[in-house]
């Protein structure tokens, strides 16, 4: 039996591939550029993408379980829907899909709305799937490391509601466990949603305080300006994506990303260890600077 991992060269997908290989699973990785894919020799690398239907058919042939991760692109919903249709034609019944927490709440944010649409199609098409709904990735803050250390400010628009930030290493390990659970089940398992959250729900002020303690100097929170956030992002990403991120930031301020009762305990039990904390990430980041 074979597990196909899409998004295999990204931070989460690459770790999932590595976890599966260590567990002796037959792994196939879908990538755009095989020459840039540096995987263990046991991994079968297939060139393709979600808009190349023939390449998808080839990648999914003989696959028993699919990890579906679609990139934040303007046609994200179309790409994922094509992948789901090809998967159904290929007879794939077991899926783990990486969505996002509160996809049904952040309805005006394009990439959230797209992922919620994919969730609905998974249900409507009758797939047996685990829908993983991660909160904000802790490692997103690597892109503002120099601002924190160089200018003494935490600039992300986190707000005062709080985000249950999660380490991408925990996301990858949980996704791997769900893939194996579905792959190894005697019959396809019923659809299930799992919120992926970290051990704490942190505000912008909380995060600034963590950095202040780790760096042993004052770090201020100054991130509620979503307009300025958008303008900064436009320097290194397309304008549509920067606006998408701004809309997300505005929902951070009004809604936060809050866990449901029992989420942390469920994930801790699943992993068999505590979830990684933001403070641990800050210490690692400061030590490697």
TrEMBL record:
NmrA-like domain ranges (all copies): 2-248
Pfam families referenced in this protein's UniProt entry, alphabetically: NmrA
Top-level taxon of the source organism: Bacteria
InterPro entries (alphabetical): Ergot_Alk_Oxidoreductase, NAD(P)-bd_dom_sf, NmrA-like
Record-given protein name: Uncharacterized protein YbjT (DUF2867 family)
Organism, as annotated: Rhizobium lentis
């Amino acid at each position: 039996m074979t597990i196909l991992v899409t998004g295999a060269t990204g931070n989460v997908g690459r770790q999932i591939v590595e976890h599966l290989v260590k567990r002796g699973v037959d792994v196939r990785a879908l990538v755009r550029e095989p020459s840039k894919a540096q995987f263990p020799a046991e991994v079968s690398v297939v060139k393709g993408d979600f808009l190349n239907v023939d390449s998808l058919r080839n990648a999914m042939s003989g696959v028993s379980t699919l990890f579906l991760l679609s990139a934040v692109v303007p046609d994200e919903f179309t790409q994922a829907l094509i992948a789901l249709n090809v998967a159904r034609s290929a007879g794939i019944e077991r899926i783990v899909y990486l969505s996002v927490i509160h996809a049904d709440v952040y309805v005006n944010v394009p990439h959230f709305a797209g992922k919620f649409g994919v969730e609905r199609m998974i249900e409507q098409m009758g797939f047996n799937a685990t829908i993983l709904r991660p909160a904000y990735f802790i490692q997103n803050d690597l892109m503002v490391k120099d601002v924190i250390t160089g200018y003494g400010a935490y600039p992300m628009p986190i707000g005062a509601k709080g985000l249950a930030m999660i380490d991408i290493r925990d996301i990858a390990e949980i996704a791997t466990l769900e893939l194996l659970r579905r792959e190894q089940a005697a019959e396809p398992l019923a659809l299930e949603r799992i919120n992926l959250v970290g051990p704490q729900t942190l505000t912008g002020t909380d995060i600034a305080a963590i950095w202040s303690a780790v760096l042993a100097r004052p770090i201020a929170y100054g991130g509620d300006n979503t307009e300025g956030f958008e303008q900064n992002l436009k320097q290194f990403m397309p304008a549509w994506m920067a606006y998408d991120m701004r809309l997300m930031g505005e929902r951070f301020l009004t809604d936060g990303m809050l866990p449901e009762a029992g989420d942390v305990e469920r994930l801790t039990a699943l992993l068999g260890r505590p979830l990684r904390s933001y403070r641990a990430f800050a210490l690692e980041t400061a030590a490697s600077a």
